[in-house]
Amino acid sequence: MITAPARAAAVIEHARVSVGRSMVRRRLRAVADGRATAIEIDLHRGPVDVVGELAHLTARLADGSPPLARLQAAFDQTGASDAAIDGLASRLAAHRIRSARSVGALKAERAVAWVAPLLSADQAEVREAAARALGRIRGVRSADALVRAIERRGATRTLIVELARAAPDLYLEAALFGRRRAGVIPAVAAAAGLRRRQTAVGPLLALLASGSRKERVVACRALGWIGARRAVPVLIRAIADREWKVRLSAAKSLAALHAPARGAALEALLADRNPRVQKAGRQALRRLAME
Amino acid sequence: MFFALAEGTLRALARRLRRVTVAAGELILYQGEPGDSIFFIEQGRCRVVIEKPPSVVTVAVLTGGDFFGDTACLLSRPHQASVYAQSDCTLLALDRQSLVSVLGRDRGLLDELRKVAEQRFSSYADTTVQATWGMLLQEATVIGVYSPKGGTGGTSIALNLVGSLARRYPGQVLLLDLDFPYAHAALLAGLVPTSCLARLGGVPAEAFEEVLLSAILLHSSGPMILAGALRPEEADDVTPELLTRAIGVLRKTFRYIVVDLGVTINDPALALLDLTQHMVLVTSPELSAVKGAADAVDILLRLGTPHDRLSVILNNRTLRPAVHRTAVERMLKRPVDIEVGFDGPRADQAALKAEILSISNPHSEITRAAEALAELIERYHGKLAATGANGGPAIGHEPR
After folding, report:
1. Partners of B226 in the beta sheet?
2. What ipTM is given for this predicted complex?
3. Rounded to an integer, what distance in angstroms lies between the CA atom of residue B243 and that of residue B26?
4. Cβ-Cβ contacts under 8 Å, A136 against chain B
5. Per-residue pLDDT reduced to its tens digit, B378-389
6. Interface test with chain B among A75, A144, A170, by most B beta carbons within 10 Å
7. Considering only CB atoms, which chain A residues are within 8 Å of B95?
8. Which of A3, B66, B78, B139 is the most exposed place for a label (fewest CB within 10 A)?
9. pLDDT digits (tens, 9 = 90+) for A25-39
10. In chain A, which residue's Cα lies nearest the Cα of B111?
11. Residue B11: CB partners within 8 Å, gap ≥ 6?
12. pTM metric for this prediction
């Protein structure tokens, strides 16, 4: 049973944290806007999640923009950036996770070389934090590290999502044509789909035409995510593919595309020999009727 | 853009470059999407196009040493235009993180680069507006007809193309005759010009349009002709500035302007190349003519004429050609788009009667070729292209 004094203490504590969070936000914004140059905030001490607040603020700032540069310079001055990079080599998993979050929030490109080894850490949480940090830092070095991690340990949802975030222009498109270990190309294709750039449509269509079964399945889905209208005829042809997973994937993608000619093609799926493909066809037609 | 950087900084940037190969026809950047990399062309040609459905206008062709993507990368603005690989390309990509990482310590350098990018953005915006306004306002398409060797029938093809287009759009098609020094398109059409473009250089700006339009001759069957010069010595008076000024006026008045460029590539011809939306190269199946045509194709492509905007016409002037079509195509390293069958003395007879074959004789080989060429041009630049109704490629898109 919670007593009245305890409840009052909890309310006061909550208010204290809120006030503290508000103060941190104001200080960070002041530095970003150039109204202050120094920042006296410890990234990891106190009741407020400073790294979270910093990450929230920097997520909206373009790389290399003056506000981000001011924040980075301010944290460099306090030594917080160096401490975060040092922390990446800590023996304590919790410390490494915190440090990875910090360098990610600060978008510290120079930390990529130290974050990348964490993608091979034993603890899943450390690997996840490292992948997220690289996704926030972005750039070709981060993308290279993520692709290498996929090659070594296989693709995970986090690695694919962060690769989509980190990859610079034409990186994934070029990687789709490169020599990679089995399993990497589908992950890259999925990342290209998540990135939703029209430049990936050509390489994905080529993959759909000549890739392995898994690659074709992912290419179909990726084309749907991108909303590539010029892929509609190819996806309609994929509905007749001998692999049911490709047919299923094509049906889902066609449902996502607003193409007038796809209704008749999808109706053919209602008589498909695979019940999952039939279901996908039904769902796609329902979606079409609702538009 | 990077000339002000110290050598050490340039080396650091060079180490961060990523080499990307792109196949011909592939999309490199898409208009309106965000971007984070600057691309330097190491090898190949890229085409910059503005897409304003249903129109797509080519605004620049970039070659080795040129770069693009700087405004999106440095200013965080969406791409102003799409970029397609016109040939197989090797690009060097520099992403924003690498750029900031190398230059980030020196804010002044980054700001300087941003300023340059801003200037390029503004000047590019002006260029693209200029390039698209004609299309958006449905102004004339300019078609250049060039034959690298005299006597291959370039003027005849130009005149009959005008005839075919004029049958579709009476009073809206003009032939500008720049086949110097002896421009005789008007003569072949049975017209006698009394004024010409060369004599308009000194006309004041306020009277220029009126005087220019009054120099145009109307053929009774629909086409219109403007002579470039009446005497050989007047050819030098047609300057690039005068030509650009005249085309600017004529584009507002006509639907198609066909320019007979003759055999020489001089300054006015080069100025006109910048203003043309389509080039027609006429050759005959003779060794010297085909050799000249092969050189011309090379020059035109290097000057930035897109592959699909260059049409090659093989005009058979004799019954038994010395060089076969396959040999011509091998020498040109590209297919012949239209072959004109031997037409006997019909062309000469039509000139004597002041007729344009493509209007007066539907059975003539020249008429068939002119019709096919008009069809091809309509597919790329006419109403059909705008609606995509004929199933042909949309304007400006690389064939895939």
Report:
1. B176
2. 0.85
3. 35
4. none
5. 887 765 444 433
6. A170
7. 139-140, 168-169, 171
8. A3
9. 888 888 888 888 777
10. A66
11. none
12. 0.63
